[in-house]
Amino acid sequence: MAIIISKNGKGAKRVDRSAFANEDELQQYIYENPESIPLYDIKEDIRLLIVAREFPTQSGPIDAVGIDKEGELYLIETKLYRNADKRHVVAQVLDYGASLWRHYSDFSAFIGELDRQSQKKWNVSLQKKLQDFFGSSEEDVQKQIENFRSNLDEGTFKFVVLMDTLHAQLKDLILFLNQYSKFNLYVAEIEYYKFETFEIMIPKLFGAEVKKDVSVSKPRSEARVWDEESFFSELGQNADEEVLGKMRTIYDFSTKYGADAIEYGINSFKLKVDSKDGTRKTIFFASTTERWNLISEFWKSSPELRKKYADLLSKAVSGIKRDKLDGTYYEIRLDQISQSDIDALLAIFGRMVTEIQETEFSLSL
Length: 365
What we know:
alpha+beta; elongated
């Protein structure tokens, strides 16, 4: 196929279709220009931020990982026509998704890798990049991060395969998978043209037009109303008595700040308190996956507070790594921490809340 380019109705020139030299060139183009992926066929106002390239998994690196404003995770793979059987890339991207879901059960490791790549590419934290890119508040970004944490836990990904040419057999496979499975797989065919200093991309998305006929029941986590009873009922299905006791300690500590201080989400609850200036902030959240996530952004309101409480927390429990307290989350597995360590950390959080509520420190970043 060729296209015709002219200026003011004159000088028409034929431009034949070009080709990317290699997959790395296509990957880099997508990384720099995520809007070239026609996700607007899925949702009109969608914006995608490519937060990582060559994201490591035990099955190999994912070409790119993207995030949208709602916290949906996009796993993106590229393949050129002259390469091997294109059906293989479908199995490959699903394998990457399975590996990501299975081996990044430690969310702090997952978010840490995204933050590392954000610092490397943009010289800002992941949280700051999300705020700037989507024009979101800090609270919105926390919800966004919690959403893709939930998506990672449940293996809910959107798979996107980019190709320069899409053949009929692959279309049949995508149609079948999207019709009879719970996940979404899209293939974007990218036509590429070069004219003088311009590059022209004509993307076509396949898979978005498929409407699932299969009856997909909602996960029980989405069907229930979350409160204290349902949270501990869910936790108790897998956790032993020791972990239940540790979680109860964390929950009881949270109740000291009133019923409004506890906010429930899917499989989780969070502790939120107000500072003296009225800014409401999340201190930590806990989940039925037996994890306790410290929100280190809470004490980053000033260099003094940041150093003071990061030092106190790391000194209180020898297993806590001081450098990781400068990240967005610090995740603790309750089966890997003692009851006395939890008590020590909660005592520090109590001091922290009192100090921030009684001082003029601003909690805005």
